[in-house]
């Protein structure tokens, strides 16, 4: 099928564009396949080739895309809706988007701000009076329900009654990004990261990387920052620079659950559970400014020339077979020869990453190499029953069902010369060995003692003979003589 072409002729009017999902998602203008998923292009969307200036996905599943000149576009999974000045927006240039805890969708434009209520009714404009400067560039909500606004000249807290609170500490400073981590609001000025508390605002410790342009928070509460083209994570009180490919040239990043997405130079990268995936993307432009993940799992990217998205495969991989020491792993337990897993063979889909955890050895799961045959060859298990957990993860982070394999390690005694015998026969074997050894030693000693006694008797007899001869004299000394 071919998608219908759309031309947005009058951006100042509210336009309702109904496309069937299959039309838009299954026949995108730009498609590149990677792993099980595919890249989708949206050249024919209301965004067109406009720079995407803001991007978010709300809890209802809608995607919101802000543009440079065409206002705000919303995709609800079946229909595009465009909001402009006619619909109450202060300006056609969208700067920032944010959904708060009450599911209000906040919109900051070049010349003002406001929000759509949770039912997505009429846009409600907020008075800019009292706000130090426009535009608002970032939002965050604190534990008290106040919505914090980042501006070029300070920080503002908006309260439900419309009152504004402006901290003196940050007055006049350019705030570039905000984030809420476990109820604490963080504010980045570029050079300094500030931490909010009931006592007020103070520079965060430890000192953050300089040049922060964006903050984000993982599901577990870990704070992340983009600075100097690198992605950093606050971990154990220290800022850690993530390894490649997140260590240089990153244009945008997004944390969704425990998965981190980042984009650079026309590529998208994701990492989770110690695994990093790279996806060669067919993007409208190499420079990606925004990344978000919708409730349906589709990864949306905003670029300088429009929208693109990656729709992953959601089919979990399957483990075809597992064998240990040549025996197929099934419902019954496997008894280990010499208490070792000499060979571990796992048959799964190509490209899948294998995880394993052996209860007696691994405190956390280990990632196995493609050839995992000898992964546990160096481990000798203690006697008893053990459990080996095995699962695989495909290139779209889909996880297979976990296989539980019961292993029996025998109570063995390991003897010299590589001998291994059941421990319950060691005592009889040792007793028999000891008896045999004693008997052999006794015989050897008796033979040796007999030989020694014989030598001693021969020596004594020789000495006696010499003694007799020395006393009686030798009758033949002087030669033989005959008397007549």
Gist of the model:
The protein is mainly beta.
- The main sheet orders its strands as 1-7-6-5-4
The major pleated sheet works out as: 5 strands, antiparallel
Unreliable spans: 1-34
Distance between the first and last residues' Cα: 154 Å
Number of helices: 2
Helicity level, as a percent range? Answer: 10-25%
The whole-number mean of residue pLDDT values reads 83
CA-based shape: elongated
Count of individual beta strands: 40
Report the radius of gyration as a whole number of Å: 41 Å
Structural class label:
mainly beta
What share of the residues does DSSP label as strand, in percent? Answer: 35-45%
List its salient traits.
40 strands; mainly beta; five-stranded antiparallel sheet; elongated; 2 helices; 484 residues; disordered N terminus
Overview of the structural elements:
With 484 residues, this protein is mainly β. The strands form 10 sheets. A 5-stranded antiparallel β-sheet has the order 1-7-6-5-4, with no helix packed on it. A 5-stranded antiparallel β-sheet has the order 2-3-30-29-28, with no helix packed on it. It has a 5-stranded mixed β-sheet with strand order 33-38-37-35-36, with no helix packed on it.
Helix-strand blueprint:
Elements: E1 15-18, H1 21-25, E2 33-34, E3 37-41, E4 52-57, E5 63-67, E6 72-75, E7 79-83, E8 94-99, E9 105-109, E10 112-116, E11 124-126, E12 138-141, E13 147-151, E14 154-158, E15 164-165, E16 177-181, E17 184-188, E18 193-197, E19 200-203, E20 212-217, E21 223-227, E22 230-235, E23 238-241, E24 252-256, E25 259-264, E26 267-272, E27 275-280, E28 288-293, E29 299-303, E30 306-311, E31 319-324, E32 327-328, E33 334-336, E34 344-348, E35 353-358, E36 366-368, E37 384-393, E38 403-409, E39 412-415, E40 419-422, H2 426-472
Parallel strand pairs: 33-38
Antiparallel strand pairs: 1-7, 2-3, 3-30, 4-5, 5-6, 6-7, 8-9, 9-10, 10-11, 12-13, 13-14, 14-15, 16-17, 17-18, 18-19, 20-21, 21-22, 22-23, 24-25, 25-26, 26-27, 28-29, 29-30, 31-32, 31-34, 35-36, 35-37, 37-38, 39-40
């Amino acid at each position: 099928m071919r998608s219908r072409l759309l031309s947005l002729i009058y951006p100042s009017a509210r336009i309702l564009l109904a496309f069937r999902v299959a039309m838009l998602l299954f026949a995108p203008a730009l498609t590149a396949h990677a792993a099980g998923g595919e890249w989708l292009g949206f050249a024919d969307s209301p965004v067109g080739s406009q720079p995407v200036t803001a991007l978010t996905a709300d809890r209802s599943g809608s995607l919101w895309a802000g543009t440079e000149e065409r206002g705000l576009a919303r995709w609800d999974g079946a229909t595009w809706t465009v909001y402009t000045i006619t619909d109450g927006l202060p300006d056609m240039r969208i700067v920032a988007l944010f959904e708060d805890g009450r599911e209000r969708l906040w919109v900051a434009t070049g010349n003002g701000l406001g929000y759509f209520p949770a039912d997505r009714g009429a846009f409600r404009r907020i008075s800019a009076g009292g706000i130090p400067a426009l535009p608002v560039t970032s939002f965050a909500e604190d534990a008290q329900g106040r919505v914090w606004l980042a501006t070029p000249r300070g920080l503002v807290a908006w309260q439900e009654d419309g009152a504004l609170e402006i901290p003196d500490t940050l007055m006049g400073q350019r705030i570039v990004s905000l984030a809420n981590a476990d109820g604490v609001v963080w504010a980045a000025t570029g050079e300094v990261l500030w931490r909010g508390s009931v006592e007020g605002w103070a520079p965060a410790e430890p000192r953050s990387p300089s040049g922060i342009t964006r903050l984000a928070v993982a599901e577990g509460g870990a704070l992340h920052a983009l600075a100097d083209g690198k992605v950093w994570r606050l971990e154990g009180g220290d800022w850690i620079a993530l390894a490649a490919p997140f260590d240089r040239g990153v244009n945008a990043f997004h944390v969704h659950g425990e998965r981190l997405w980042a984009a650079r130079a026309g590529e998208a990268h994701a990492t989770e559970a110690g695994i990093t995936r790279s996806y060669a993307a067919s993007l409208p432009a190499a420079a990606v400014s925004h990344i978000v993940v919708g409730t349906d799992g589709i990864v949306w990217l905003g670029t300088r020339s429009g929208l693109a998205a990656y729709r992953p495969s959601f089919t979990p991989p399957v483990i075809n077979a597992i064998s240990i020491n040549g025996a197929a792993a099934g419902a019954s337990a496997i008894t280990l020869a010499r208490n070792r897993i000499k060979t571990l063979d796992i048959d799964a889909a190509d490209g899948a990453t294998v995880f394993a955890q052996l209860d007696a050895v691994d405190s956390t799961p280990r990632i196995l190499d493609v050839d995992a045959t000898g992964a546990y060859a160096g481990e000798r298990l203690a006697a008893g029953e053990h459990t080996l957990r095995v699962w695989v993860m495909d290139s779209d982070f889909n996880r297979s069902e976990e296989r539980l394999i019961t292993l029996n390690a025998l109570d063995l005694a390991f003897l010299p010369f590589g001998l291994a015998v059941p421990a319950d026969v060691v005592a009889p074997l040792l007793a028999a060995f000891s008896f045999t050894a004693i008997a052999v030693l006794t015989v050897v000693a008796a033979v040796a003692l007999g030989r020694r006694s014989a030598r001693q008797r021969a020596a004594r007899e020789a000495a006696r003979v010499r003694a007799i001869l020395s006393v009686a004299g030798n009758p033949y000394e002087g030669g033989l003589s005959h008397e007549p």
